[in-house]
Design brief:
The chain is an alpha+beta fold. About 25% of the residues lie in helices and about 30% in strands. The protein has four helices and eight strands, in the order βααβββββββαα. The strands form two sheets. The protein has a five-stranded antiparallel beta sheet with strand order 1-2-8-4-5, with no helix packed on it. It has a three-stranded antiparallel beta sheet with strand order 3-7-6, with no helix packed on it.
Length: about 180
Amino acid sequence: MSEFSILSPPAHEPVSQSEAAGYLKLEQEDDADLIAGLIRSGREACELYTGQALLYRDVKLTAVHQGQRFFLRGLPVVTLLAASWTMGEAETALEVAQLATCEQLGRTYVDLPGVPIGARVSVSYRLGLGADWNSVPETLRLGILRLIAHQYENRSKPALATLPGAVTALWQPYRQVHL
């Protein structure tokens, strides 16, 4: 069984409160809490759809080691921060500078030579396209704005199970599909 946790969430959102309010043609004070929630929801929907973290966040994955390769969750992996393994009570730190990330079929993994199969491995790493909204492609940001507008206009209706076609058309080129 693996455990995945966010150590530090994104410091910013890919769309600002004023940008979303302007797109919706609202005064910035109108529905500020609702707009903030829609921005977070839009980012999360975009990340789920594309399979990519838009903005940097530090995460930790802990799982039982099952072979030479230890596959990480999330894309894109920017850098490894820390790694260790535990067998019984003894924890052994791994030298991050000695580890390399590799990709195979759109998934990132770390080779862990010398770590015994069955050991509990913990790897902390940074995910994301960049540190701020300037790192996020404009088509992804526009899709988030369109989704915000759709959700804002339909906030009193029952939730829809699918994303609007105009949004998925903007996000489709960035979608990472795994087999």
